[in-house]
Amino acid sequence: MRRALLVAVCGLAVLAAAPALAQPAQAARVEPTIAEIGSAHYRFERLSVTSEDGARVYRIWIATPRKAAPPSGYPVAWLLDGDAALARIDEALLARLDAGDPPVIVTVGYEGDRQFDVLARAFDYTPRPSGDAPAVDPAGRPGGGADAFLTLLHDRIGPEVARRVAVDPARSLIWGHSYGGLCVLHAALTRPDAYRAFVAASPSLWWGYGAVLKEAPPFLARPSRPAMTLTLLVGEDEAQGRSSRPHLHPMWTSVPVGATRDLATQLTGAGVDVRYGQMPGQGHGGMLAASLIPTLLSLAGVAPAPGEPLS
Questions:
Q1: Which is catalytic among the residues 39, 51, 172, 178?
Q2: Helices (H) and strands (E) in the chain, counts
Q3: What pLDDT was estimated at residue 113?
């Protein structure tokens, strides 16, 4: 029997960097965010949803601009690792968004007291490897649940958000960092019609010994592709092979340092609308905020989109 849909935990009409690799070793605690503190520019509503297998409970915040929606609906940004993303959003950023065409912001995190649920995200954000490759990461965390997670996000949570606020599917964006970036890239290659724009920051391409890279040829072999854009962002330190930790496990070294740019070049050469960017002075952990803030500002039309088209 299908589990109950979303339960509204509370509706608030308010006035007013992870370490290297994919998993934060010591995830910061969840502290009060702008959602609880309140904003003069956005109102917040909190929802809770349980995964189909009952193993994970998602904490979802819907941030809706106080500015009236345009006739087509608001743009909408879906943010993975929602608790960590929300911790990087403040009133100053919301004011900048409000000065343009502010998007609805949907943060998708996990119930609990940490910004990252390392077990839950390792399962939800990783695609199932092909063949006999084990669906575990170098730390032994089970993975392979990305398709179930993306189906839940699009088919269950998406309609629930649309029921509460007018959003424009033609201006929908999904963002993720690290394992979240891997999940976004997997979504772009396997369900490119789900969102209009995909932003993958520091995607963990090494998962499953480069399993996501094997999805590019079938994607490119499609007889037709929907209109979509893919943005691939990495930190300068990552692009140059600098890391705060040695990558000793063979899964971590299964793809070359420049694999993200190589993928962008491959897709661009096949006519895909791809942007690629290296963010100066950034390592893996710092890329969370460094990619998130310009992504939101560009969606609101108040700053250039991160990355550059490859020629």
A1: 178
A2: 11, 10
A3: 85
Closest C-alpha among 302, 304, 288, 299 to residue 105? 299
Select the CATH number that applies to the domain covering 7-309 from these four: 3.40.50.1820, 3.50.30.80, 3.50.50.60, 3.60.15.10. Answer: 3.40.50.1820
The pTM (predicted TM-score) of the whole model is: 0.91
Query: Taking the chain (311 residues) in consecutive chunks of 10 residues, what is each chunk's mean pLDDT?
Result: 38 32 60 95 97 96 98 98 96 98 98 90 93 82 96 97 97 98 98 98 95 96 94 92 69 90 96 96 94 98 94 68
What is the DSSP code string of 255-309? S-TTHHHHHHHHHHHTT-EEEEEEETT--TTTHHHHHHHHHHHHHTTSSPPSSEE
**Residue ranges of the domains in the chain?**
7-309
41, 284, 291, 298: the catalytic one is: 284
154 is catalytic: no
- For this structure, is 172 an active site residue? no
